[in-house]
Amino acid sequence: MANERPIYCFDGTLTGLLCCVFRAFQFREYEVEIHAYTSKQNSAFHHSLQDNLFNVSIDVVSDEAHAQRVWTALKQKLSNNALRQLYYAFLAENTDAYQHIFNYCIYIFRHAQTQQVHSLEKNYTHPSVLAIAQWAKKVGREKHRMEAFVRFKKSSDGVFLSLIAPDFNVLPLIQRHFRNRYQDQRWLIYDEKRHFGIYYDLDQVQEVDLSAQTIDAQKEIGGSQQFLIDLDDQEVLYDQLWKDYFQSINIKERQNIKLHVQCVPKRYWRYLNEKSV
């Protein structure tokens, strides 16, 4: 029917999303609705799909070869900054962001022959070009905040641990920062929301999967984080030393709580030792 609009369902990976772009050109389907299996709206989406007989749902299988062809073509047509923004937007893990990435790719490939690519990727009058830049900015801001606010606690076996729950999937973006900054110690940063972490073993950084279970260690370490792994006996001392240092440099008469919350939003206080009781 004339109003029929295909719906591409993919597995939530970048490979799967690029395969949606590949299929769109393969079948000349450019007006497509994008949805990921792993999306939080997945259940509601399928219920709405059942209620609308005019929607055509298509499961797009991830194919590395197809995805690589699309990515290679994008590298040939876009600047490094545009590619970075595209990747950052994908890490937002948002249905709206996925849709704009798809639309952005269609726009670039369909107009690259008639216009300069530089003008295309800077054409913020196009809704998807603007949206990609906005999502990339949000993810980049979260990346910088994680790099600034992550705090480690030493385990009994010498590994430094940190639990985080960022708004976006920024672990792939922050690993270089922490590897360069803490080259002489083993550390693990675990994303509680996405149930995976990155581990540095003094040689390389690798992705790890751990049990999502935690134990209540608040009484021992000040309440800023919880761990299943036993902590070093001196961790309580280090925790208190940092709090004492923070209090010694704090000038109560100059406190500006409103400005402080703007710079360090309350949702990040759970990572900070000095904010725990």
What tags apply to this protein structure?
five-stranded mixed beta sheet, 47% helix, three-stranded parallel beta sheet
What is the structure about, briefly put?
The chain is α/β, with parallel strands linked by helices.
Structure description:
The longest helix is centred in the middle third of the chain and has 23 residues. The protein has 277 residues and is α/β, with parallel strands linked by helices. The relative contact order is 0.08. It folds into two domains: 138 residues, no CATH class; 126 residues, no CATH class. It is built from eleven helices and eight strands. Helix 1 packs across helix 3, helix 5 crosses helix 7 and helix 7 runs parallel beside helix 8. A five-stranded mixed β-sheet has the order 4-5-6-7-8, covered by helices on one side. A three-stranded parallel β-sheet has the order 2-1-3, with helices on both faces. About 5% of the residues have low confidence. It is elongated, with a radius of gyration of 23 Å.
